[in-house]
Design brief:
homodimer; alpha/beta; Spore Coat Polysaccharide Biosynthesis Protein SpsA, Chain A; 15 strands; 33% helix
């Protein structure tokens, strides 16, 4: 049952995947980013995503796509989620397969549905602003377009992709919808500053809202084999044949991001619009972000989180400490530090180098230490 | 049996005590500094001290004073040490009690012996230079004086006390012996630079060489109660009454450093000489020292030690890592760092702040976390 303010015919899709390499060793294959409370909210990012999106669709209209290894953890975080709405990936096949599977299953269960895909591990404080943007995006989707929600940047971030908007759309119910000139990869600092100055560039938050059938059409146009595989799996999903078909077809699906398969081609064809979102948003992509999201005053603090009662003794130190191991952690005279202390791995770096954590993960994988990844 | 080059009538005393608070959490009450290999020699500091001093006296002329908790560890490190030459302190009572006990026991076993006291947790690379200085100090002691060995400073160190030498002694066999004007506490940087420039100031390495009876006379002059207690214990030491007397008398002995009780009063009375030692010496007092002692080239390296095969993955990082817990340790872009990773405690600081580690230990003690000390 949808709650009173739910949007009729709207289904929320929450892809809950990804390891979050830049948050290693906090985020792991076994305990990925979306299962952690990284913002001090008291809830996991997944739970916060659920709470934020459920009012838009109703609890029985939310589908979570996740790996088989995380089924129990997801159901524990989201007891209201019906088991039928957990779509399990036997192995990760990237976002086109994940969102495409959801679109194909939803289209068969509720033909004509509009889906909205929102990552399980992002952070938004302004729920009302987010809801308004989604409602506009649904209005855009109702015209047959794909809508994305772009976030008005508040800083020249180099960790995000950008959407170059070009204004000019007049869609009823979507006053903030604009056309899209192009998608831009993560820029360097100079380019990011230029983007910010023009006001024409929005952060690509990876939020897509469209009729499920339209998503599937674009997958079929760009990647017909992938689309055929998804269709075969979706046809079998709610039947006894599911396990056999998934086991046979899913592992062969192409791993490719939905931005390349759907969003960029649709934008190039004029079939995609962006809703300018003025709410706060963060992809909680690295430890610098975690530190920022925990700041409650002018900064300069030491942010400590993780564990029941972290035992941190610090003098003249700033930065962020994730204290999971239960050990006593002492810091002296160290600025903007990032310390992540887990049972089997320790990371020490600075906020400045937060984006480089992924390279350590790569180095550990290459050196055969994947047991700590 | 003394080896051929041993000095007749000379007994080495090795006080093996002290927690080494500035080396926490590596050095602990249960595993103090002298039991660790902190210099990359492949041996504990205690073992290196033994190897360095035994040729001067012979293996059966070396006495180790240590806490009851460390008896087994000491005997494991020094299998050649006879059990009778391990003097156990039931609780720490500072250096006057420790060295005074050794002096009193040695004087009873070998009246007229000259003892030389050398800390168990210091570092010397130039063993020949050390031996030469000790032989000169014994020559000084043979005149009835107390000799200390002062180290020619190579840098304006602020972590050491200094001895102000004033030249002018003509003692046979001790060409480098000088009179002592005064002892100086740890100076500030400006004063240390001035000390270095004059050439008159030597590092106080806490090495004392004197007839055991002379040491005891000075203790009796400064602290008669303490001297009486030590005499009572020493009288009982090699008898069946030892345990009873120690249990009754030792805990009441005054805790005071031998510098104040013996060295400074003797210097003021003109009864103490300093042998100018030009060998290298380090008290391995903090993590900056450990880093320095491990440097094998021009510096800028990351020094990793501790554990069987430390798993450290570092990018653009310098400093020192003590990796004892067996966990994977990753460092990114962090300079002059000190990371000490043990089972129950982690320290992150910089070499610049190495001397401040003691304040963390104090804070932990005050906050009731003494289980990690």
């Amino acid at each position: 049952m949808a709650v009173s303010s739910a949007i009729p015919g709207f289904v929320v899709v929450i892809p809950a995947g990804g390891i979050g390499s830049r948050l290693w060793p906090l985020s792991r294959a076994e305990a990925p980013k979306f299962l952690h409370d990284l913002t001090g909210s008291g809830h996991s990012l997944l739970r916060d995503t659920w709470d934020r999106t459920v009012p838009l669709a109703g609890a029985d209209q939310v589908v979570v796509v996740t790996g088989v290894a995380h089924e129990l953890a997801v159901l524990e975080e989201l007891p209201e989620l019906s088991a039928a709405n957990v779509l399990l990936e036997s192995e990760p096949r990237d976002s086109t397969a994940a969102i495409g599977l959801a679109a194909a299953v939803v289209e068969r269960r509720a033909p004509g549905a509009i889906i909205g895909s929102f990552s399980a591990d992002h952070f938004i404080r302004d729920t009302a602003g987010f809801h308004q943007a989604v409602r506009e995006a649904v209005a855009v989707a109702a015209t047959g377009r794909i809508a994305t929600i772009g976030i008005e940047p508040t800083a020249p971030a180099v960790g995000y992709g950008y959407i170059h908007a070009n204004g000019g759309l007049e869609i009823p119910g979507a006053p903030n919808a604009e056309g899209v000139r192009s998608f831009k990869e993560k820029p360097n600092r100079t380019t990011a500053k230029r983007y910010l100055a023009t006001g024409e560039y929005l952060w690509n938050a990876g939020m897509y809202v469209a009729p499920a059938a339209v998503i599937l059409e674009w997958i079929a146009r760009s990647e017909p084999e992938l689309a055929a595989g998804l269709a075969e799996i979706a046809d079998a999903w709610d039947t006894a044949a599911r396990d056999e078909v998934v086991a046979r077809v899913w592992p062969g699906l192409k791993k490719v991001a939905i931005d390349y398969v759907v969003a960029e081609p649709a934008a190039a064809a004029g079939a995609l619009a962006v809703v300018r979102g003025s709410f706060d948003w963060d992809d909680v992509g690295d430890f610098e972000a975690i530190s920022r999201l925990h700041q409650t005053d002018a900064g300069g603090d030491l942010v400590v989180f993780g564990g029941e009662s972290p035992a941190v003794v610090a003098e003249d130190s700033t930065g962020v400490v994730f204290a999971q191991s239960g050990r006593v952690i002492s810091l002296i005279g160290i600025k903007d530090v990032v310390v992540v202390d887990t049972e089997d791995a320790l990371l020490v770096t600075t906020k400045e180098h937060a984006q480089r954590v992924k390279s350590i993960v790569d180095a550990l994988r290459l050196s055969g230490r994947s047991e700590v990844l």
